[in-house]
Amino acid sequence: MARGFALNAGVPADVILQTARTAEALGYGSFxxxxxxxxxxxxxxxxxxxxxxxxxxxxxxxxxxxxxxxAIIAATRANALxxxxxxxxxxxxxxxxxxxxxxxxxALRQHLRTRLYVAALGPRMCRLAxxxxxxxxxxxxxxxxxxxxxxxxxxxARAAGRPAPRLAAYVxxxxxxxGADRLVTEGRRYAAIPAYAAHFERMGVAPEATGVAAxxxxxxxxxxxxWEGELDDVVVRALTAHDTVDETxxxxxxxxxx
Length: 258
Prior knowledge:
By secondary structure, this protein is of the alpha/beta class. The chain has a single domain (2-254), classed as Luciferase-like domain (TIM Barrel). The chain has helices at residues 13-25, 41-48, 69-78, 97-111, 123-132, 143-160, 179-191, 194-203, 220-228, 245-254, and strands at residues 2-7, 30-33, 56-63, 86-91, 115-119, 135-139, 166-175, 212-214, 233-238. An 8-stranded parallel beta barrel has the order 1-2-3-4-5-6-7-9, surrounded by 8 helices. Helix 1 (13-25) packs parallel to helix 10 (245-254), helix 4 packs parallel to helix 5 (123-132) and helix 5 (123-132) packs across helix 6. It is globular and about 45 Å long. The termini are close together.
């Protein structure tokens, strides 16, 4: 099991730079950003790339319905991202999500020699990820549902006669006063999206049950340990009050690998 750390790609560049550098120094295996609308997650990774040497750089995930494979390929090259360290995540909403992801992974493999991840929530996308991807990026899920999702992924891999891809999941972590409120607010934002609403209904839990609101830094390791036995990579998705360097680095240190 490895530990990753993830930020919103829209935070200031100095937060991205210092967080990636510190995460690498503390032994994290991966540093991730999301792809929030017009803010290009690949460009955010380009800020981190020259300041790091070993840590994998992930984007989770580029939406194929608005950014097709040729645009992803062009952006990856334009940002001079190191393909040997890049974890390129893609996903798609319905309709036609399965076909779009299958075709997208096929097109990307022809032109980019890097590790390709698929964002998956439900059983069909998990099985497809097992069939075609190098990694799966799960999101907003309990440890118990992580186990179930892993089974779906492995079913897809077995059906395709290939090894199971690496299993990663974003686990939202908020530290200190107001952390529980931040987690609830973020969860409600996602629950307004139909695919996530169905996901939470399938699990039978409120969104905040899938994350960690820690009163102190000392509470974080035990809380994250609940996911560690189910995944290859537990990726701490930071929920800070103001996205400052100090509070973000405080969370990086509190959640560091042991």
